[in-house]
Specification:
Keywords: Glycoprotein, Hydrolase, Signal. It holds the Pfam family Lipase_GDSL. It contains twelve helices and eight strands. By secondary structure, it is α/β, with parallel strands linked by helices. The chain has a domain at 24-219 and 245-282 and 339-357: Rossmann fold. Helix 2 links the parallel strand 1 and strand 2. Helix 4 (131-146) packs across helix 5. The longest helix has 24 residues, at 243-266. The radius of gyration is 20 Å and the shape is globular.
């Protein structure tokens, strides 16, 4: 009896250690401009892309790195937290990806181009690497990372996967293509199903630790607040965010949380985590001073002044735009992406806080 008790306690202890003191082999990241660490720029910066210009990257790197921020992103902070190097972009030739690779690319969508063509908005997307394509890029790398299929199952089973966020650009394409937020929400179930299939694919390859982030409260972002501002006070919530656009985000996220719960039941041997991007960023909007921010709805880097400091014709990195003197006091970096300071707080919230369910490390 005592022996059985000791064995049981050891099993519980080792299971706890696997979660609370997890030492990952690697981190593998997928997503869009919230996560890209350079894939879009590996063959040289695309013409006209402002994020390859100063002041992007000024806070940490001292130069533009093709990251859509003044410094590091959530995935950079996760790598640092687990003692791993900052993730190299997967398209970087000749790199060693054994400790991680980043498949994320600016402009990425969940859905393939045919989906947007069917909606009549094929011209509104870049589609440099939708979710399916990013998983293919990852599969092409795995032989150099871990060898045989069997060896990879073991190696990847002790790696952390971050799948997104995905969905933001799927909705951006529709909104910027003339769809209302309510019309765009009609595609949410299809988009969430595709994200779920992405998780299925990763688990089939051996993934056991998968973080699946939701989309952000875009109704609080300077780009949306500028482009879709109205004179009707009823269109705004008490914090100054556009309600219709946030309702689209919360609808997507409710479906995604249900999907993650289904996947966790389907794969009891895996740890599939819903990262609540929305609630954390919305809390920063509601209580900016709690996070050290003096401004929440205004872009640090931009032009035009006013409430939001955003102009499409003078975006961050373009002539006429400039960065605020202290980006760490701002939530929004360029009107559509966040500052390094915000991303660090978000990463902390995912690792051991209240904004990832279950937390990455608990």
């Amino acid at each position: 009896m005592a022996a059985r008790l000791v064995v049981a306690l050891l099993a519980v202890s080792s299971a706890f250690a696997a979660v609370s003191g997890q030492k990952y082999n690697a981190i593998f990241s997928f997503g869009d401009s919230m996560s890209d660490t350079g894939n879009l720029c590996v063959n040289g910066p695309p013409a006209g892309l402002t994020l390859t210009q100063p002041p992007y990257g000024e806070t940490f790197f001292g130069r533009a790195t093709c990251r859509c921020s003044d410094g590091r992103l959530v995935v950079d902070f996760l790598a640092e937290r687990f003692g791993l190097p900052l993730l190299k972009p997967s398209k970087q030739g000749g790199a060693d990806f054994k400790q991680g690779a980043n498949m994320a690319i600016i402009g990425a969508t969940t859905m393939d181009s045919s989906f947007f063509q069917s909606l009549g908005i094929g011209d509104k997307i870049w589609n440099n690497g939708p979710l399916n394509t990013q998983i293919q890029w990852f599969q092409q790398l795995t032989p150099s990372i871990c060898g045989s299929t069997e060896a990879c199952k073991s190696y990847l089973g002790n790696s952390l996967f971050v799948l997104g966020e995905f969905g933001g650009n799927d909705y951006n394409a529709q909104i910027f293509g003339g769809y209302s937020p309510e019309q765009a929400s009609g595609q949410a179930a299809t988009i969430v199903d595709a994200i779920g299939k992405g998780v299925d694919q990763l688990v089939s390859l051996g993934a056991k630790y998968v973080v699946v982030p939701g989309v952000l409260p875009v109704g609080c972002f300077p780009i949306y607040l500028t482009l879709y501002q109205t004179s009707n006070a009823g269109d705004y919530d008490q914090y100054g965010c556009l309600k219709r656009f946030n309702s689209l985000s919360t609808y997507h996220n409710s479906l995604l949380q249900s999907k993650v719960n289904q996947l966790q039941s389907k794969y009891p041997g895996a740890r599939i985590m819903y990262a609540d991007f929305y609630s954390h960023v919305y809390d920063m909007v509601k209580s900016p001073s709690n996070y050290g921010f003096s401004t929440n709805l205004r872009a640090c880097c931009g032009a035009g002044g006013g409430k939001y400091n955003y102009q499409n014709s003078a975006r961050c990195g373009m002539s006429g735009a400039y960065a605020c003197s202290n980006p760490s006091s701002s939530l929004s970096w360029d009107g559509i992406h966040l500052t390094e300071a915000a991303y660090k707080k978000i990463a902390d919230g995912w690792v051991n806080g209240a904004y990832c369910h279950p937390a990455i490390q608990s």
